[in-house]
């Protein structure tokens, strides 16, 4: 399964501003011509998308690896499998998802043909991040195709080989008058944002998310913001298997070297158990990386940090921390940083400032679960809260505290990361971690308008006489 360490194999060709504008114009024409609407067309395009990922599996994985130096298994499981199964499941679900709904209404309106239809919103834009160059762009695209929306996808310029390969493969499999990959950086994305879209689906940082939101508001464009955050973990050490918790947290943290939106960011532990938790992390580390040089061994599967900029940022965080480096702290001087445990971290520590997006695990000692909840509540709303406990009382406290539970996009008990594989549930943030959601039918829901329809039959007129002026006292009795 081992792949060579990253080296750029492809240069990314940016789309010219003129080509972006003409792509937008062509997609609008296709929408007017209702090209993306027939269910047979949507089904065929979804299956073509699945074929694109199946038939080019090896070259897509190689491009991804050359961008991010990630192990084949870490690419296949989160990036390739969900796209193929997601596209096929959407193709199979089109009739059901698009079925008009007949809501239950009051008996006296039962002859009004009350119906809710789903209609495609229109031409939509998807902007993606570099850390998951395929799922963060293509899973929303599956929703757009299923909804009948023509779509422009703008992958990140920081995963250039993946972005370039997608741009080359799309015309071979999909109808490019309806679905288009465009490439570029800030200038190109800014030009895209000047155009009118009927929905923008953005995945990336909170800083850029705010720029996207400000641009969208000019055209009153609905928006999905899938943003990053500092997702906390609470270990209820009296009521959980600490070794299992440490193993599952370290597994989630080392995925893509911590460069995941749902990475467990920092760990809150009752003070008396901090040392035991640190020992459990060390034990899990030794099991994961029994190599002579641990996780930094050339033969280990640990992913790289994106680039020197982020590498420097992370090393600087480690330099500034006032916590105690209990394990790790090494780097290979190139792009790999060892999963590192820092204990006795204070709330104002450098490691608690922003989303870490790296394999550092700060451990913050707390008094108890209520203290942990207060710390979480005092910070921006995270994408996920992870809690390790077997106690019903702790579970209840985390779901409801005096009616005000600590908010988050998702609450996960006793594991990390796994929630992303469940496409029957919505995935998305709340507050500072974004708004809107996707996966499975929720992606479809994002790109359709639910249009209510009624027909009040003329034969109903005898029952409506009381509503017309001149008003009478009898009108109140009607
Ligand atoms: P980013 O915000 O820097 O970039 C995302 C996209 O925005 C890229 O395509 C980029 O070209 C574009 N962009 C950058 N600057 C822009 C500007 N000034 N104007 C217009 N467009 C601009 O994010 P990133 O570094 O690619 O990704 C990492 C972030 O994404 C992390 O915060 C991570 O948590 C978050 N993320 C969130 C999710 C989620 O589902 N919530 C998933 C993956 C990543």
List the secondary-structure elements in sequence, H or E: HHHHEEHEHEHEHEEHEHHEEEHEHEEHEH
Strand content: 15-25%
**What are the low-pLDDT stretches, counting only 5+ consecutive residues below 50?**
1-8
Q: If you compute it from the alpha carbons, what radius of gyration comes out, rounded to the nearest whole angstrom?
A: 25 Å
How would you sum up the global shape? globular
Number of helices: 15
Let me know the number of strands.
15
What is the terminal separation in angstroms? 75 Å
- Structural class estimated from helices and strands: alpha/beta
| Largest sheet strand order | 9-10-11-8-7-12-13
Q: Give the distinct bound molecules.
A: nicotinamide-adenine-dinucleotide
Mean of the pLDDT scores?
A: 94
Task: Summarize the main sheet.
Answer: 7 strands, mixed
**Proportion of residues in helical segments:** 25-40%
What does this structure look like?
- 40% of the residues lie in helices and 15% in strands.
- The protein has helices at 17-32, 39-55, 57-68, 72-98, 135-147, 160-173, 186-194, 206-218, 242-254, 274-288, 308-320, 369-377, 392-399, 441-447, 474-477; strands at 115-120, 124-127, 151-154, 179-181, 199-204, 223-227, 231-235, 264-270, 324-327, 340-343, 360-366, 384-388, 410-413, 434-435, 448-453.
- It has a seven-stranded mixed β-sheet, sandwiched between helices.
- Helix 2 (39-55) packs across helix 6 (160-173).
- The longest helix has 27 residues, at 72-98.
- The termini are far apart.
- Residues 1-8 have low confidence and may be disordered.
């Amino acid at each position: 399964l081992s792949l060579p360490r990253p080296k750029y194999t492809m240069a990314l060709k940016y789309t010219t501003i003129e080509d972006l504008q003409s792509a937008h114009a062509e997609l609008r024409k296709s929408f007017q011509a209702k090209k993306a609407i027939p269910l047979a067309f949507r089904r065929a395009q979804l299956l073509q998308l699945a074929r694109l990922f199946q038939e080019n599996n090896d070259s897509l994985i190689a491009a991804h690896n050359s961008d991010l130096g990630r192990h084949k298994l870490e690419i296949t499981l989160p990036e390739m499998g969900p796209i193929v199964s997601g596209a096929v499941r959407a193709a199979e679900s089109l009739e059901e998802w698009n079925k008009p709904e007949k809501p239950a209404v009051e008996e006296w309106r039962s002859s009004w043909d009350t119906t809710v239809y789903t209609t495609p919103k229109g031409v939509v834009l998807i902007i993606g991040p570099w850390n998951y160059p395929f799922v963060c762009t293509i899973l929303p695209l599956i929703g757009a195709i299923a909804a009948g929306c023509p779509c422009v996808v703008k992958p990140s310029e920081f995963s250039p080989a993946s972005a370039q390969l997608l741009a080359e493969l799309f015309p071979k499999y999909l109808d490019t008058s309806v679905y288009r990959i465009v490439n570029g950086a800030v200038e190109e994305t800014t030009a895209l944002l000047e155009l009118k879209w009927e929905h923008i689906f953005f995945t990336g940082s909170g800083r850029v998310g705010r720029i996207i939101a400000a641009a969208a508001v000019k055209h009153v464009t609905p928006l999905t913001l899938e943003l990053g955050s500092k997702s906390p973990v609470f270990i209820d050490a009296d009521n959980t298997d600490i070794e299992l918790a440490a193993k599952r947290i370290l597994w989630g943290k080392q995925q893509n070297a911590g460069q995941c939106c749902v990475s467990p960011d920092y760990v809150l532990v009752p003070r008396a158990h901090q040392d035991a938790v640190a020992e459990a992390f060390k034990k899990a580390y030794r099991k994961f990386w029994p190599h002579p040089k641990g996780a930094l061994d050339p033969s280990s599967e640990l992913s790289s940090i994106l680039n020197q900029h982020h590498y420097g940022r992370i090393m600087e965080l480690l330099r500034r921390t006032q916590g105690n480096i209990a394990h790790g702290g090494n780097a290979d001087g190139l792009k790999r940083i060892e999963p590192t445990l820092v204990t006795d971290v204070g709330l104002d520590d450098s490691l608690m400032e922003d989303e870490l997006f790296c394999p550092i695990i700060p451990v913050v000692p707390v008094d108890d679960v209520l203290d942990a909840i207060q710390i979480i509540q005092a910070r921006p709303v995270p994408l996920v809260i992870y809690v390790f406990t077997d106690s019903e009382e702790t579970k209840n406290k985390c779901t409801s505290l005096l009616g005000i539970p600590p908010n988050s996009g998702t609450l996960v008990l006793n594991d990390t990361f796994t929630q992303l594989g469940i496409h029957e549930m919505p995935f998305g943030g709340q507050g500072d971690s974004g708004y809107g959601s996707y996966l499975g039918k929720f992606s479809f829901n994002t790109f359709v308008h639910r249009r209510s329809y009624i027909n009040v039959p003329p034969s109903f007129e005898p029952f409506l006489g009381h509503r017309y002026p001149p008003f009478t006292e009898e009108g109140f009795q009607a």
